[in-house]
Amino acid sequence: MEERLFQTARDIHGLYPHVHIWGFPIATYLFLGGLAAGILLFATLYYLKGKEDNMPFTVKIAPIFTFWFVIIGLMLLVYDLHHPKYVLELFTTFRIESPMSWGAWTLAAVSVLSLLWPLSYIDDIEAYLHERGWYKLDAITKFLRDLEHKWLIPHFIIMMFRKYRRFFAWILLFLSIILGIYTGILLSAFNAHPLWNNSILGPLFLTSGVSTGSAFVMWLSNNKKERKLMSTIDMALIATELFFIIHMIMGMQAGPEAYKQAAHLFLGGEFTVIFWVIFVGFGLVLPFILEALELKGKHIPPALPAILVLVGGFLFRIIMVAAGQMSEYPF
Amino acid sequence: MGLLIIAAYYFAGEGLGSSGGYRDVAIGVINGVSPEYAQANPYTAPHVADGHSPTNTWLVFELLGVIFGAILSAALYGRLKFVVGKAPHITNKKRLYLALLGGILWGIGTQLGRGCTSGLVLSGMAVNSLSGYIGLVAIFGFGFIFAYIFKSLWIKKN
Predict the structure, then answer these.
(1) Percentage of chain B surpassing pLDDT 70?
(2) With contacts defined as CB-CB under 8 Å, which chain B residues touch A300?
(3) What Cα–Cα distance (Å) separates residue A300 from each residue in A220, B74, B121, B127, B156?
(4) pTM score of the predicted model
(5) What is the pLDDT of residue A260?
(6) ipTM reported for the complex, 2 dp
(7) Cβ–Cβ below 8 Å for A298 and B72
(8) How close is the nearest chain A Cα to the Cα of B33, in Å?
(9) Where are the domains of chain B?
(10) Mutate which: B68, B73, B79, B82, vs A, most A CBs within 10 A
């Protein structure tokens, strides 16, 4: 008997029964990108509105975290690549029609600006920490101040940033919106995956990212007015997010068969419970109710709705990345 | 509680329970980490045999509802805060360690006894099951003994 070897596309790892290329690192990157975009959007927006002294945490302190969120996100993206060295090639060109090119350049610009933004406020940050009895980070703040005062190039860069902060705030505001939308566009650009391939995904990811940003500020700020404002904004964002989600599913239900099958993943399919009960129930509806009760004067620990929104936002990315890969055109 | 039990049997076709929900979540985690192990283990195998997720059970949904409802009720009546409920003379750390130990014993005990206070006793007695009555006597009887042994954790000796 003659032995025969068969090889089909189904043998390729991560392709059958459905594509399974992206996992935890990509979902985490999408979450961190959205979160950083949300924090930066509020920081620049309230700076431009002249509220930097009324909302010190939003404008000066929260952006300290964004640089690290973006860097961790970028590292996860590179980790996910088969050929990490090729990442540099993204920065040798700019292709206007490629969402990945937009994303790579936006991330690079945001990471630089989100480092300079808190550096330009280093004196205020130190005063803020001292006001709250935090002296443990003095060595770091001193090092950063010395960096600015003793070295010519950092001194010049930070001085210029301070001088033209308003101009950079406009740029960063614009870039934060691009970054937030981009996390959704990256997925929606895949036309072979009907669940991702819809135009509402960009705005939905932006809204979700900004909502996690407001939750982050609400959680860590100890200024009552700031927390109340962020809580109110977050409620509006959650309502918008719910509207987008329903709109997305209605759009798919009204579409061709492949889109109906994509919607079915959430309407009786594999992701129904985790999507509606855990993400929508615990990650959107419950924090919305808690925030509404807080506005009515009930005492709610701010950490609770904030953590629910943050965990919900993270779960949403994990679900969308996993479900999107499962949604395909029927053979 | 009686009305709740009737409602649970009427709407869900099952009684109330809490340990079963934890068990389902634990099996779900085992199944997620190693489906082969979950299939081979005689304790977890029946829960993963039908191809459905082991967490797709009434008890898991009931527990999620309990968490949702508890947060909502506490928020409405101004009791929503992070505290460690304990006697003033022991430390938080001691309380949390002992709670963890108690939880582990509770987990083992409920699986050996086929249910906890709600699943075995409350739901069992609601359908006039003998095991429910035996469970009632055993749980409360040993409860008194254990309370006597561990009372120094709650009441300070003078």
Answers:
(1) 99
(2) 75, 80
(3) 14, 9, 35, 40, 32
(4) 0.88
(5) 93
(6) 0.81
(7) no
(8) 14
(9) 1-81, 86-158
(10) B68
